[in-house]
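INFO  loader      accepted 1 record
INFO  loader      residues=396
INFO  predictor   begin
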Amino acid sequence: PGDFLIFRRNTSNQVTETFENFTMTPEQWDELNAFVNKAGWKLIFGLNNLLRQPNGEWDSTNAELLIDYTMKKGYQVAWELGNEPDCYVEDHRTHVSPQQGANGFRILRDLLIEKHYPVQLLAGPDVAVLNRLNYFSEFLLAINDTINATTWHQYYGSSSKTKLQEFYSCDKLDSFLSQNVLLLEIVANASFTGDLWIGETSSTYGGGEALYSSSFVSGFMWIDKLGIAAYHHKKVFRQEFIGGEYSLLDGDQKPLPDYWLSLLYKQLVGTHVLNVDGALEKGRDVRIYAHCAKYPYPKGSVVLIALNLFDTEAIVTLTNDELINSDQDIYWLTPSPVTNITSQVVALNGKPIELIYETELPVLKPNVLLPSTKIHLLPRSFGFVVFKDAKAVACL
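INFO  predictor   done
INFO  writer      dumping tokens
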């Protein structure tokens, strides 16, 4: 994380190193930005929050070197400051109060304005646990409008303690709903009007559970989280692309089940959230969320995100005429083989998904069903149903 990072342009650039750190060179920064640009991504980078002056104020000297170099190279980078400051005492034996953290962001904001930095986007504080030690709430009360987005980290529990059945447990999934209620209360109390981001998330913290976090079963947590988060969050950042048991790619850079789930979500699900009665209620063993579908589906198309936590088939009855009268494009995910819920192979509509020649992504095609009043959900599985002929007014 950035809290251990020192940017060093040359050997004369010396920084007092109180904490264990790693040094990043200009060449490494160039490589990172080249990778991001080639992938078509946007980069948000966490600066070192543990560099402090004797009075406890954030020392921006090293950050300024990185910002200056970034501007010189023309890179488009947004910034965070620090990572999981609510854990500093326990993990790093130091303390940065919420008020000091907020002041650090003000120093950073003033620095960016002074330099006419082209990307005026700041996000934080990236707390490990929502409102642990009241850090998140006190930070928001102190930050005013200095940041554009506030960030927190969400997991369903410890990797070493979470059991297999909890990955598809209604109670466990509902814990995210409870966290969202607390989040909205804190945000309202602080009168914070910026965006809400989940700055880091996966199934379980601590690197993931070896047998489960990289398998099909982790998808229940991931797809349900995306469905719920879309109601109030602007962005959700997945931990992590590669590395750890909960990564999207394995050690050979081959896609794991959550990669295929994420890819389908990105291809099908638009940003416009549609209302589904009871979608944010607890106790749902069948869970449905709805969005406007993405291009190339025509305007007016609707996509349902659906989970069946039961070990038997579930039938969803449609009551909306726009959906009833439309063909259904089914993208349904199951483990392969279907009886092995901890398989690292996922099937789309019964056919295992594989890379083409081990390097190319396949075209993920749906099964097309005629209009019906019913949707049949296979036991303990999840997926997407697109109604391309819905002509939903909200999606036109």
